[in-house]
# Entry
Amino acid sequence: MKKDNFFITTPIYYPSGVPHMGHAYSSILADVFARFKRIDNFNVCFLTGTDEHGLKIQKAAERNNLEPSVYCEKISKVFRELTTTLNLSNDDFIRTTEKRHSKAVNELWNRLVESGDIYLSKYKGWYSVSDEAYYNSDEIVEKDGKKFSTFSGSQVEWVEEESFFFKLSSWEKKLLEFYEQNDKFILPISRRNEVINFVKSGLKDLSVSRTSFTWGIKVPNNDKHIIYVWLDALTNYLSALNFPNTNHELYKNFWPASLHVIGKDILRFHAIYWPAFLLAANIAPPIRVFSHGWILSGDEKMSKSKGNILNPLEIIDTYGIDELRYYLMKEVSHGSDGSISLKNLEECINSDLANNYGNLCQRVFSFIKNNCESKIIKTLNISYADKKFIEQVNLLTKNLKHDMNNQDLNKYIKSVINISFLTNKYINDEEPWKLKNNNKEKMNNILHIAIEQIAKISILLNPIIPKKTLKVLNALKIDKKSVNLDFLNKKNILSKTLTIGDLDILFKKIS
Ligand code: ME8
# Structure
C-alpha cells in the first residue's frame, strides 16, 4: 500500500550560543509528531538544522574572534550533536551555508524579481539584531535611553540604508483570503486570530536586503546587498527538498510541507512573510504552522540573554532523556507558555512514569515471571469486568489520532496515561494473585488482558519516550515493524499464547 507523505520541520537554530531548553522543547515537540506519523504509517521526512547567516551570527563570531564560517562550523556541530542527545529522528540536518541552500535562495529571489514583487528603495526604521527583525515605531519603547521592541523585549537600533523591498503590502488581501480558505493553517486558533488581526491592521513592504555587513547570501548580480536573513532562512524548508529541482523525488513527495513547528516569537515570519513569498513566487504555501508557547523560568522566557537557562544536557545526565522528553511534552501546555522547574520534573517522573506506567509494567512482568514461568495463555472469553475495562480503554483511544493531528499533545498524553492508570486499577480490582491456586485460567486471562494494554500504551507512548517503551516492546517480542497504530482498528497486538522476556526497572523513583 502506498504511504501518504508527511514533511515536518523544526525551526533551524541560530548557532549564536549553546542550545538551551527552548531549543530542546521545540525539537522534541516536532520529533514526537514525526514519530507519531511514522507509526501511523506515513512516509515521514523530518528536517532540522542551523540558520547561519546575518548580523547576529557575524557578531557572535566576532565576539569569539573567529571567522564566521569557522565559528558556524563549530557551533553547528554542537546543534547536530544535540539531535543525537535528544534522540531526534530527523532525516536531514540542513545548514544555510550549504551550496544546496544558496541555490534555492537565489532561485526564490529571482522568481520574486520576475513577478515584480521586489524593488529598490531606502530603509529607515528600527531593527533588532537579536531577533533579526524590523519593527514599526509603535512597537518600540524607551528605557534608560535605550530603545526596545515591545513584542520581544530585545534592544533595537535605528537603521538607514539602501535596501531591496518585498511588496508585502500588496499581499494583504490574498493572505487574508488564504487564512480564510485554510482555517487550520495556523494553530492554535488564538495564534491564528493574532496573525489575522495583525494583517488586517495593515502590512508595510518588507526590507529584504542589507548593505551594512557581509555575512550572508548576496543578492543575485549585486555584490553590495545581502539577502535578509529571514528570507534566506525560511527557504531552508525548500532547499532540503532539492528546490529548484522540482522534479526531484523529495520535492515531489514532500512539498508543500505538512507542518512547521515553531515558537510563538517567530510566528510572523512563518505565518505572514513565508506564505507571501511563496504565493508571490508561485509556490504552494505549507499546510500548517503550529506555534508553541515559551518555556519560562519563573515568569520569564528562558534565554541566554536573560541568564535563566535550565541546561538540557545536565538534566539529561541526571534524569535521562526519556524523562526530560516526557516532562516537557506533558507539563508544558503546547499553545501557551509553561513554567518548568526541577521540582515539577521530579514530581512528574514519580507520578506518571515511576508510579504509573513503570509500576504497571514492572508488576505485571514480574508476576508473570514469578508465577507463570514467563508464559501465559488466554483461553477464556472475556468477563463482564473485562469488557467494561476494555470499553473504557477504547473510549480513551478513540480520539487519539485526532488529538495528535491537531497538535493537541497534552490531551493525547493525558488519555494514554489514563489508560495506564485504569490498567493498574483493573489489576487491583481483579486481584490475579488470589487466583494462583484455584483458577489459573482466569488468572492467565487477566494477565493477558493487562499485558495487551501494556503493549498498546507502550506503542502510544513510543513517540514521546522511545527508549524506555522499546525496552518493554522488546520484552514482549514486538519487533520494530510491528510498532504501529494498526491496533486502533480493534486488532489485538499479542498472540493468545505468549512468552515474555525480562524487564529491568524502567524508571527509578526520585526521593
Ligand atoms: O528563531 N521556549 O532560531 P532560535 C520555547 N533561526 N521555545 C523557545 C525558547 C523558549 N524559551 N527560546 C527559543 C530562530 N525557542 C531562527 C529560526 S526558522 C526558518 C529560523 C524556540 O535558535 C524559538 O521559538 O532563536 C524557535 O522556535 C526555536 O527555539 C529556535 O530559536
The longest strand covers residues 118-128. Residues 342-372 form the longest helix (31 residues).
